[in-house]
Amino acid sequence: MSKGYLLSEAEVSDALAYEAYKQLSASAVAQYGGRYLACGGSIEVLEGAWSRPERLVIVQFDSVEQARKFYDSPEYRAAREVRKNAASTNMLVVEGLQV
Asked: N or C, which end of the chain is more exposed by having fewer CB within 10 Å?
């Protein structure tokens, strides 16, 4: 089975509220078996016309289906509610290679 990777970029407008979101989100990620691979570290564009996000997060789940369960969960819906006035966000899920 392929892993599922959730990628999220955010532009934070309310740092205090975003901290509350991060705590709720981290709890939900752990509950649904996710593992942070990157979380808000430095970003360097190496090639092309990428716009450098303010914040980039990559979370690995056991499958795309598990990533969707996390995203649709009551726990993460509560986190998203906190985040909606704290940051503008783009998020996607991508299927990893089968190994």
From this structure: C
